[in-house]
Amino acid sequence: MRTERLTRATAAILLAVVLVSTAQAGKWQEYAIGGTKEAATEGDQELADIYGDIVVWQEFVSGNWNIYGADITNPDNPQVFTVAGTSDKKEEAPAVYENIVVWQEYVDTDWDIRAADINDQGNPQKFWVSNYIDVNEQAPAISGNTVVWQDGNDFDFDIRGCDITDPCNFVEFIIAFYYYHQRAPAIYRNTVVWQDDTAGNEDVFATDIWLRNKLAEFSICDDANDQQSAAVYANTLVWQDNFFGDWDIYAADITDLSNPVEFTVCNNEYSQENPDVSRNLVVWQDDRNGDWDIYGYNLTTRQEFLITDNSYDQINPAVSGNLVVWQDARYGGWSIYFTILDGPEAAECTSKIAGDVNGDCQVDWHDFAELADNWLECNLDQPQACW
Hints:
- By secondary structure, the chain is mainly beta.
- It has helices spanning 8-21, 37-40, 365-373; strands spanning 30-32, 45-51, 54-61, 64-71, 79-84, 90-97, 100-107, 110-117, 125-130, 136-143, 146-153, 156-163, 171-176, 182-188, 191-196, 203-208, 216-221, 227-233, 236-241, 248-253, 261-266, 272-278, 281-286, 293-298, 303-308, 314-320, 323-331, 333-340.
- The chain has two domains: 28-348, TolB, C-terminal domain (Neuraminidase); 352-387, no CATH class.
């Protein structure tokens, strides 16, 4: 059960403490993909995604959206390349995993899913993933050799996937096929998550697709009001939730998909939206300072921190490891920026410690308190065996 939100006075005190500890906004150097103000303002760049050192985004060129990428191995000199630059086609909503980029492309009368192998960045090899006629396939996501997307029309979207392991024999399959909408899928290995409005409001569901002929589906969060924009990495699933009347960031440990353990990432009184997660870092856009900024949260140290608070809007963040990208309006139009997190904010646990009850990679009085709370508890199914 969710706890009540803090009173305004208490929240203000705690926020002040957080801001004191994270007031070094801008402590990390920020890089524009274009490299210069002129390049950044040439055409709107939006909806960035990142995997490793590869960033992809959609860019408005000659009246249409096209897909571009950049290798940011050298952050001072990103190597920009064209993924899909068809002048008479709309190419939008890219996602990337290793050397494969996927996106939605408008062909004739509907959206289809297309992909490109970018091993040779100067000559991406494009191929179709799904291109049914008169059906909209949109919002693709990719992990490994599996691509997922929302499939249908304005009256009924479903979730489908495709195994692209064999380039000569793609295997498409249904993940969620119900009345109303299943939309905005995300994937990590064999876990697919999405938002579902079958119950009359948006909820978060997940499916284990390990056995394609016997999919295992689970409800992650079906509280009142809406849960949207889910993202997943390993055993952590995050989403935005308006349980308190504005958008907050929640998460669940899905080690056991049948028994997700929900917890709060940030329920500040302002809006937090569009979360993403990688390893032990969660990022989102946040308007607590009067415009949209990018915040982060370390799942291991349980510390929130400010990533960028430029006076213009920063939205739609994505994270891969300690690299964070976002969409930035500091030069008028939208451009893509990124930064490399280091220091305590990006701390990771190198190995588990015996006695670390709460999983924060240190043994302290918090662990002792949890141990004391459960002192002499026994859950053996034969109680007489306890003592």
